Amino acid sequence: MRVAVIDLGTNTFHLLIAETAGKDLKILYKTNVPVKLGEGRINDHIIIPAAFERGVNCLKDFSHTLASYQVDQVRATATSAVRSAENGQDFVHAVKEHTGITIETISGDEEAALIYQGVKLSGAITGLSLIMDIGGGSVEFILCDTEKLIWKKSYNIGAARLMQRFFKSDPLSDEDKQAILFHIQEQLADLFEICEKFKPRTLIGSAGAFETFAELVTRKHNQNIAIEQIKTYPFNYDDYIDIAVKLINSTHQQRVEMPGIIPLRVDMIVIATLITNYVLGRCKINRLTLSTYDLKMGVLASQV
Description:
Elements: E1 2-8, E2 13-21, E3 24-33, H1 49-68, E4 73-78, H2 80-84, H3 88-99, E5 103-105, H4 108-122, E6 129-134, E7 139-144, E8 149-155, H5 159-166, H6 174-187, H7 189-198, E9 202-206, H8 209-220, E10 232-234, H9 237-249, H10 252-256, H11 268-282, E11 287-291, H12 295-303
Parallel strand pairs: 1-4, 4-5, 6-9, 9-11
Antiparallel strand pairs: 1-2, 2-3, 6-7, 7-8, 10-11
Helix pairs in contact: 1-3, 4-12, 5-11, 6-11, 8-9, 9-11
C-alpha cells in the first residue's frame, strides 16, 4: 500500500510518500516547500492573502504528485499557523475545494505526541531525554525515556512568532536578545519545573533548526555527512556552543554567506539558537542529539 503524509508547518510544507508492507516502510518520495504560511501577521492570527495563495498552490502541486504515485491513503496535518489563524478554517476549505486534500488541524498536544513517535523511530532516545521541536509557530517539548512518554506540551513561541515580535536589529542587539529571553523564561516556567524534578540529561532536537546546526558543525570539520541521509547525529557540545555563539553575533548578510543555512532559516536560526541555549542552560543539559525523524515520521508510523 502507498501512503502519503503532508505536514503543513508554519514555515514549510512537507510531502512524504512511502510504500508499506506489514510494518516495513520504504520512502519513495519526499520534498519540502518554504511556503511561509505564517509570514507577516502570525501574531495577529491571520494568514495573509499572499501566504494563503502560496499554500493552496503548493498543495495543488502536491496533489499532482500524489496522483502520479497512485497513493492509496493520505494524511495531511496542519499545525500552529492554521490552528491559531482566524481564517485557518477558510484555508482548510479552500484546499479541499481546489485539491481534494482533507486537512486535519491537530492540537499542540497531538503534535507533541506525533513528534515523540517520530523521534522514537530514529533510535535517538537512549535514556531520560527532553525532545524539543522548534517550529515557526510553536515549540513542542516532550519528556520521555526509552519506554514511554512522561510529559509533553506545546508553546506558542515558534521562531516566526518571536522573529516578528522581537527581531528588530542586525546583528541582534542585547536589548532584543534580553526581550526574547525574558519572554522564553516567562512562557516555559512549567517546563523548567518538570525538568528540575526529572533531570533529563540529553536534549534531542527534532529536525528543522537542529539539522542546520548539524550542517554547520559537519562543514566546520569538513565531515562528508549528508544530514538528510542519517537518522541521528550526536553533537560534540563544544562544537554546538561555538556555532551558537557565531550565529547569535552574526549579521543577516554573514548568515546568508554561511554554507549550510537554507534561505528560509537565515534569520529564524538566531531565534532557534537562543531558545536552545536557554533550555540547555536552565535544565543543566550538556548532551545534544539531532533526530532527523520528526512529526512526519510519527504521522507515517500511525498510517501503518
